[in-house]
Amino acid sequence: MDLFATIAGAAGAELPKDRQIDGCNILPWLKGEESNPDKEMYYFKQDTLQAVREGDWKLRYARNERVDNGNDILTKRYGKDANVDFNGPDAELTVQLYNLKIDPSEKYNVAGENPEIAARLMNKLEKFAVEVKAHLDK
Predict the structure, then answer these.
(1) Which one is the CATH code of 40-138: 3.30.1120.10, 3.40.50.150, 3.40.605.10, 2.40.50.140?
(2) Dihedral of the alpha carbons of 107, 121, 111, 78, in degrees to the nearest 10
(3) Which of 88, 41, 82, 36 is nearest to 60 (CA)?
(4) Which residue in 21, 60, 72, 104 could disulfide with 96, CB within 3.0 to 4.6 Å?
């Protein structure tokens, strides 16, 4: 969750102008006043930039393996399908594209069927990594 910009927004404070802020105020989204953020949202895992969301699309560029048998545990608690990710030493670095409107559990990678969208979002991810001096998996 993006805390810095959201807490600043809730407090009525202005964000610093002397540096690139890698977040946005998501308070309207959390309060249900907006259904989707207008601009891209970027996801980090620790210090690694791993994903970008734009509207209904989410692109993940990550070294991970998917474990679907976590559904039994998570479904009982949250009432929905869920996936568990983990970074294994032999995990392959992949570009994954999900349409969150029809696949909120991120089970079906549609990057192969939507290469233009995947390329556009990958370009945004790479540019953002340069802007905020983040790194991507290699």
Answers:
(1) 3.30.1120.10
(2) 0
(3) 41
(4) 60
Q: What are the structural domain ranges in the chain?
A: 1-38, 40-138
- State the pLDDT at residue 98: 96
Q: What is the mean pLDDT of residues 45-64?
A: 85
The pLDDT, as a whole number, for residue 131 is: 85
Tell me which amino acid residue 94 is: T
Q: How many other C-beta atoms lie within 10 A of the C-beta of residue 102? A: 9
Residue type, 9: G
> What length is written for the chain?
138
Q: How far apart are CA 25 and CA 12, in angstroms?
A: 11
> Taking 70 as the threshold, does the pLDDT of residue 71 lie above it?
no
